[in-house]
Amino acid sequence: MLAGALDEARDVMGVLREIWPKCSRKTRVAVVSYSKLRRGSTKRHHKSNSENELNWLPRTEVANVLELAGFEVIKQTPEVLMTNNLGPISRWVNRWLTRLPLFRQFAVAIVTLARKIDQPHPDPSLSIIVPTRNEAGNIKRILSEIPSMSPNQELIFVEGNSTDDTWQVLQQQTSALPPGYPSKVQVHKQTGVGKGDAVRLGFAKSTGEMLMILDADLTVPPSELPLFYDALVQQRTEFANGSRLVYPQEKEAMRFLNYVANKLFGLWFSFIMGQPVRDTLCGTKVLWRDDYELIAANRAYFGELDPFGDFDLLFGAARLNLKIRDIPVHYKERTYGSTNISRFRHGLLLLRMSLRGARKLVFAPTQSEPKPR
Fold it and tell me: May I ask the CATH class of domain 126-361?
């Protein structure tokens, strides 16, 4: 944490360049800067204790010098609205109001969180997890359309108690794969319930350095998966989240109410996590194994409300301060089967989970540090 260090440094760039080689991919640099409202009192206090003038680094300049020194900004968060100690009143104001729109403009301090811009990660091994329930008609297409992205790639199906012949089709199709098929293939039968449980089982059975989720309904074409792989390999992001809200959609791909709900959840989640996430419910998500293991180790912090797994991963990534970025995908109409999602019942559950995430990530009075693996 650089709290005031850049304000007093005679060589701001020198300080940051000295820090850069000591950072790893997981290191987060936090810089505290003050608003114009706070600047005057800070400067007067500093003059009374030192002969040196303070530097002036507003939030935009902090982001600028970090970028020049080889860092990139993950997010900037307002902190502290009321500096006078009025007991419960100031605690309530600083806990609940500081992060809200309008009020955040008057925060006296801004915390800028940044990470080191690192070199590309060459050819990491990859595990593609495909949770599969009542998708018998899509299995052959998945096997034929999965692109080869890594020289060490595995494809893991987790069959979730289907009422059609998905399990039998998986057995038949995977046993008939030709020699030289570019992915090692595993097939597992789910013992729990829900997509989130299936994804966790697939992750537990996987060996890849990078973990990728593909929904078996093929509404996101497998041909677009290399966009996610390349984004992590090139260190452009640490958590790649699919966004179905960029390109025009096929007529029956997403119903109108689902589209509106996704837009609203995107705005709400961008506020909660402090990073832009437009489409929280797209099933295609990609992250590094070591980051997932940290998320799993700290899962109890948010509880076990999420049967889908999307919020579990997003909340966990936000708490670890991973860089989260959307990857635009083309959203296609389902050609086989029907959705397993209940709009209203699951919508209420998603709302409950998002409120819990807001309380834990935004409004928590103190946030304990995530446990290491």
Answer: alpha beta
CB 113 within 8 A of CB 34: no
**Which of the following CATH numbers is that of domain 2-116: 3.40.220.10, 3.40.190.10, 3.90.180.10, 3.40.50.150?**
3.40.50.150
DSSP character at residue 253: T
| Whether pLDDT at 254 is above 70 | no
Q: Which position has the token pair 């832009």?
A: 276
Which uninterrupted H or E stretch holds 199? helix 195-205
Dump pLDDT digits (tens) for 115-169. 999 889 889 999 999 999 999 999 999 999 999 999 999 999 999 999 999 999 9
Q: Name the H helices within 20-98.
A: 36-49, 59-68, 88-92
Structure tokens at 51: 């002969």
End-to-end Cα, the chain, rounded Å? 22
CA angle 165, 170, 174 (to 5 degrees): 155
| DSSP reduced 3-state for 109 | strand
**Residues linked to residue 128 through DSSP beta bridges, in sequence order:** 155, 212
Pairing mode of beta strands 28-34, 2-3: parallel
Handedness of CA 301, 366, 325, 356 (dihedral sign): positive
Domains in the chain: boundaries: 2-116, 126-361
Residue 3's H or E segment, with its range, is: strand 2-3
